[in-house]
């Protein structure tokens, strides 16, 4: 058996700026401001998008990812990608968000189930899901933390 053809994993992260120049999320409004930069505003009323913000212990942003994009009423979210990236970044907390093109700010049953599964998966790695935020057209949003769903 020739093992030289197998891939090799390398984990690393290079900051493009110092930590002091990175945004710190202090409240929901700060998170929404970053989410609105990550979500393609030209598609916010057309197509679902799912984004992730990765944070260190002081809630400083260490990475972001516009992870998944779907149709008009749903997108497939792969928890392994979110959790795997969180582990690689050695983050302490995560905020996730997606948009509802319809403008309905109420979390769906699928949104709530996904949030519970993601919370459990992250907790196994001592990573906290701080919030799941739904973004709508016209700047509206809904936070799972404010609804006591996290």
Walk me through the structure.
The chain is of the alpha+beta class and 150 residues long. The protein has helices at residues 28-38, 79-89, 109-123; strands at residues 49-55, 61-69, 93-99, 128-135, 141-143. It has a single domain (23-143), classed as Cytidine Deaminase, domain 2. It has a 5-stranded mixed sheet, sandwiched between helices.
Notable characteristics:
3 helices; metal-binding; RadC_JAB; five-stranded mixed sheet; UPF0758_CS; protease; Cytidine Deaminase, domain 2; alpha+beta; JAB domain-containing protein; 150 residues; globular
Structure summary:
The protein is an alpha+beta fold. It has a single domain, classed as Cytidine Deaminase, domain 2 (3-Layer(aba) Sandwich), CATH 3.40.140. The mean pLDDT is 86.
Shape: globular
Main pleated sheet: 5 strands, mixed
Gap between N and C termini, in Å? 49 Å
Provide the β-strand percentage band. Answer: 15-25%
Low-confidence stretches: none
Rg over CA atoms: 16 Å
Total discrete domains: 1
Give the helices and strands as they follow along the chain.
HEEHEHEE
Structural class: alpha+beta
**Care to count the β-strands?**
5
Number of helices: 3
CATH topology: Cytidine Deaminase, domain 2
Strand order across the largest sheet = 2-1-3-4-5
What's the overall average pLDDT, rounded?
Answer: 86
Query: Residue share in helices?
Result: 10-25%
CATH architecture: 3-Layer(aba) Sandwich
The CATH class name reads Alpha Beta
Write out the CATH superfamily name.
Answer: Cytidine Deaminase, domain 2
Keywords: Hydrolase, Metal-binding, Metalloprotease, Protease, Zinc
Pfam families: RadC
Protein name: JAB domain-containing protein
Organism: Algoriphagus pacificus
